[in-house]
Amino acid sequence: xxxxxxxxxxxxxxxxxxxxxxxxxxxxxxxxxxxxxxxxxxxxxxxxxxxxxxxxxxxxxxxxxxxxxxxxxxxxxxxxxxxxxxxxxxxxxxxxxxxxxxxxxxxxxxxx
Length: 112
Known about the structure:
This protein is mainly alpha-helical. It is 54% helix and 7% strand.
């Protein structure tokens, strides 16, 4: 995204991709263009939307941990199969896919 005004168009593309998921939620900071987007998400799409308090990156812990998990697993995938760094984007998508399909307790599925 090069301009902040593109946020709605990019969100429409994102929503088309994630609307098939069982649960959709959006968490964002209090930027002006995103607060109005949250209202739109709840009304038009029925998505759960939560805003974090301004200037508190601590509240962004869950997405940051997930980003770190995906990045770490992507690097392991590339290293294990001796793949070039140019395949990093594809490895990231693959890693995110596997994380999403593995059952875990936060999804309401008991893990043995």
